[in-house]
Design brief:
Radius of gyration: 16 Å
Number of strands: 0
Distance between the termini: 26 Å
Number of domains: 1
Oligomer: single chain
Largest sheet: none
Length: about 180
């Protein structure tokens, strides 16, 4: 079904997939990678690659949908993931206020990937989200120095998601190509 609007069932599905699929997949791969990487390597390399993929995987099969729809569904998946991660980190003692922006950061990153899926350029936009995630986690690994680059990275993700969303309804038509086409071209 190719439609201009997502259904409420789709919205719930994507929000829950961020929690039920995204979080366990990320936790599994990040825990396994602890056997092979340092904590810094897991946080800055493995987590961005795995989390961005885990949040966005339901989008990869909806490539024929309009960009605005795919971005909204991506935002919902990232929001579900971000809320679940927020609860985990805060329950482990992370500062409540410092974790709030990460909820929107995860939503924005997956929205950016949704835009890429709609344009048939999934890999490129996935790598944009991974790069932003890498930078954010790198700055977070510096402790208090996160305040040097973390807020800028977070704001950059918000801005890009907002900018792509504004472009999505007026300039981008649904792509008839498969979302994974860039892997093969």
């Amino acid at each position: 079904m190719v439609s201009g609007n997502e259904t409420s069932k789709e919205q719930v599905f994507f929000f829950l997939s961020g929690i039920i699929v995204g979080v366990p997949v990320a936790l599994f791969f990040e825990s396994v990678s602890n056997l092979y990487f340092t904590s810094l390597g897991v946080a800055t390399i493995v987590a961005p690659l795995v989390e961005e993929f885990a949040k966005a995987d339901p989008l990869f099969f909806r490539y024929g949908r309009p960009a605005g729809v795919l971005m909204r569904l991506g935002l919902l998946s990232g929001l579900g993931f971000g809320l679940a991660e927020f609860i985990v980190y805060v329950s482990l003692g992370a500062p409540f206020l410092l974790r709030i922006p990460a909820i929107g950061f995860h939503a924005a990153g997956t929205g950016i990937i949704g835009y890429g899926v709609s344009r048939g350029r999934t890999v490129e936009y996935y790598l944009v989200s991974v790069t932003l995630h890498f930078l954010n986690n790198f700055f977070a690994s510096l402790g208090f120095l996160w305040l040097v680059g973390g807020p800028g990275t977070t704001l950059a993700s918000y801005y890009l998601a907002w900018r792509f969303y504004r472009k999505s309804d007026s300039q981008v038509k649904p792509s008839s190509t498969y979302a994974i086409t860039p892997f093969f071209t």
